[in-house]
Design the sequence.
């Protein structure tokens, strides 16, 4: 599950929790990934 330009990450956390309750393995990153500037 990935979100772009999300200010409030609460919905992503809740969707991750719901998916984990259904047996999915969800990895949550607490901070955004840095954008790479190398081609």
Sequence:
């Amino acid at each position: 599950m990935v979100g772009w330009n999300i200010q409030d990450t609460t919905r992503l956390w809740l969707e991750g929790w719901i998916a984990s309750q259904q047996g999915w393995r969800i990895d949550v990153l607490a901070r955004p990934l840095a954008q790479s500037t190398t081609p």
Q: What stands out?
A: The CA atoms of residues 3 and 12 lie 7 Å apart.
